[in-house]
Design goal:
This protein is mainly beta. The chain contains 3 helices and 45 strands. About 2% of the residues have low confidence.
Length: 621
């Protein structure tokens, strides 16, 4: 074991019992041995006191399996490997698996390779214990060897490990899964027992991928996670993640997160996905369909930025129809043994982002978070939308000192993006309209009154509106309509519009998905809404009457009232009756519509221009 094996080793028919050396840099090939009844390994042991292969030149280890006939008996060559040990292992290891096994008159089990134990022994502190290269096999580990881990790395996983069948014994990675590395369970037989745990003590930068439903406990602790965990089926066991979960981390459950129960009588539901780190969970948890298991995060401690959720939990990511089991879903911020823990109930998860750490739980299609918006959305057909003062939109040097600049914040429960594939841009992803105060069913374009900022600070759940240069938007009721905003991070090619509430401003014939707010008058510039100013003046001193004619406008701010001149009969709306009444006045010599001093045919043209154009403040029917 003191030298280096650099030449190739090959066994055409028969087991390789043991290869031991200081370093192994040559290729190894074994075709197994005829075995009609008992289990046999193509390779029993490969062991290096230092390294197997090098990071720049991994060696090749290949086994094969297939039918043979010896002395009239038909059996098979087994392609399994019992153990591979080394301080560092850099190797491309391939044993038979369904996609590469040769055809033959033998059972499927006979052509499946198994790696019972793959282990590095080097010290992580010395930069050793690595696995690089690749492993492609059917199963890792063996249930008959309870004290032997299937994969045990004292250092980093720097290669790709693919198993088409099961992990039958624990996988322990003492270092990191680097960005180019993958631990993948393809899913030919995804029925992993509870013994098939995966433990990562370092940083998950690369990917862990499980195609099937059943996985033993997956534990990342005390390391951190910046990469991806992908479970292709249902999550039916426990996922525990400690340390820091960064904003680049993704946990993807393609189907359902299913409830777990203990063996008590009656059974008690257990936590399914648990984040145990001190930092807020800043990554993304994507659940394809239903959440019935419990997702738990540490209690968020305000002011310290510890615990809680600053990232995003997306539920029903793969289901455009929006079907969801609402009765059993729970995302809990804070452990049950801590005071103040909060149970976030579906389907809309109403808690504000601030008490849970800045993040959100979103059920697709994502709804507007009415209480998290500024101003808070008022979903009341009979009520007025919440008010932002017009003077709040002024530059700092001219607005009242008690007001900060008014910023409209429209916040979704899930991440949004602009639907660029269908031609939308930041310019037209939303349209903004202002209501005609004289005609509630009429809305005028107002998009250019505001600067629209999508996802400020990288938060894809937020759309902000601020003033354009030159002054505040006009007073009145506004609605923001998402015509090109869709749910972000949805699976496949699903294009799902964000789900904003229906506004009834203007009546049932005017129903549109919209966020509605009001810019209120502050004509005297004291930072108080005029309606409040007028009421407070009367309450504090009945002799102080700011609005003597009770028209809702402070007397000092009164201007000459605009009238709709083509509302000839002053009924409040422009209708065909106004044409008849104007013509009657015109032929009676009183039709000076354009106030030129005399009635002429031009007055008819000017009247009709107003009638069909309905300029502000006209309201037509």
């Amino acid at each position: 074991m003191n030298g280096t094996i650099s030449g190739a080793i090959s066994s055409n028919r028969g087991m390789i019992s043991s290869i031991k050396a200081k370093n192994i840099t040559g290729s190894i090939t074994a075709n197994g041995q005829f075995q009609p009844l008992t289990e046999f390994f193509a390779i029993n042991t490969i062991e290096a006191t230092e390294d197997i292969g090098t990071s720049s030149q991994p060696i090749t280890i290949t086994t094969d399996a297939g039918p043979v006939s010896v002395g009239g008996q038909t059996g098979f060559n087994n392609g399994s490997i019992k153990r591979v040990f080394g301080r560092n292992i850099f190797a491309n290891i391939t044993t038979p698996f369904p996609e590469n096994a040769p055809a033959g008159p033998y059972t499927a089990d006979n052509k499946r390779g198994n790696i019972r134990e793959l282990k590095t022994t080097g010290l992580l502190s010395a930069g050793h214990g690595k696995f690089g290269g690749s492993v492609t096999t059917f199963t890792l580990g063996d249930l008959d060897t309870p004290l032997v881990n299937a994969l045990q790395l004292t250092g980093n996983l720097e290669g790709t490990i693919t198993a088409y069948g099961t992990i039958k014994r624990p996988v322990i990675i003492g270092g990191d899964i680097v960005s180019t590395a993958t631990l993948e369970l393809v899913g030919e037989e995804q029925d992993l027992s509870a013994t098939g745990d995966i433990t990562i003590s370092g940083t998950l930068v690369g990917a862990v991928s499980v195609a099937g439903d059943k996985l033993g406990d997956l534990i990342i602790n005390p390391g951190s996670m910046t990469g991806t965990i992908n479970v292709g089926g249902n999550l039916q066991s426990k996922l525990s993640i400690g340390g820091t979960v960064t904003s680049t981390a993704k946990i993807i459950i393609d189907q359902n997160v299913e409830a777990r129960y203990n063996n008590a009588t009656p059974p008690v539901q257990q936590d399914t996905i648990v984040f145990t780190g001190a930092s807020a969970m800043a990554g993304q948890l994507w659940i394809g369909h239903n959440l019935s298991g419990v997702v738990v995060m540490p209690l968020f401690v305000s002011g310290t930025q510890t615990g809680g959720l600053s990232g995003q939990v997306i539920i029903n990511r793969n289901d455009e129809a929006g079907a969801f089991e609402t009765a059993t879903a729970r995302v809990r911020i804070g452990q049950t043994n801590q005071s103040g823990w909060q149970n976030i109930a579906s389907p809309e998860y109403p808690l504000l982002s601030s008490p849970i750490g800045g993040g959100a739980v979103g059920l697709a299609p994502f709804k507007l978070h009415k209480l998290d918006c500024v101003p808070v959305y008022v979903d009341n057909p009979a009520g007025q939308p919440p008010v932002l003062l017009s003077t709040g939109f002024l530059p700092a040097e001219t607005r009242p000192p008690n007001l900060s600049e008014a910023v409209v914040t429209i916040q979704s429960r899930g991440p949004m993006k602009i639907d660029t594939e269908n031609g939308y841009t930041a310019t037209n992803a939303v349209i903004i309209e202002v209501q005609n105060p004289a005609c509630p069913t009429q809305w005028w374009p107002a998009t250019d009154f505001f600067t629209r900022t999508y996802a400020p600070g990288g938060n894809a759940r937020v759309l902000q509106l601020t003033r354009v240069s030159g002054g505040p938007p006009r007073e009145g009721v506004y609605r923001v309509i998402p015509q090109g905003l869709i749910c972000k991070d949805m699976a496949g090619s699903i294009v799902l519009p964000v789900d904003w509430p229906i506004t009834y401003v203007g009546g049932s014939d005017d129903e549109l998905p919209a966020y509605v707010f009001r810019v209120g008058a502050d004509c005297n510039g004291n930072g108080i809404w005029d309606v409040t100013d007028i009421a407070d003046g009367l309450a504090s001193d009945p002799q102080v009457i700011l609005d003597s004619d009770s028209d809702g406008i402070i007397d000092d701010c009164e201007e000459e009232e605009e009238v709709c001149r083509c509302d000839w009969n002053e009924s409040g709306v422009v209708s065909v009756q106004d044409i008849f009444d104007f013509l009657a006045s015109y032929f009676a010599g009183n039709g000076d519509f354009n106030q030129s001093g005399a009635s002429s045919v031009q007055d008819i043209f000017d009247f009709l221009g107003c009638y069909f154009g309905l300029p502000e403040p006209c309201c037509g029917i």
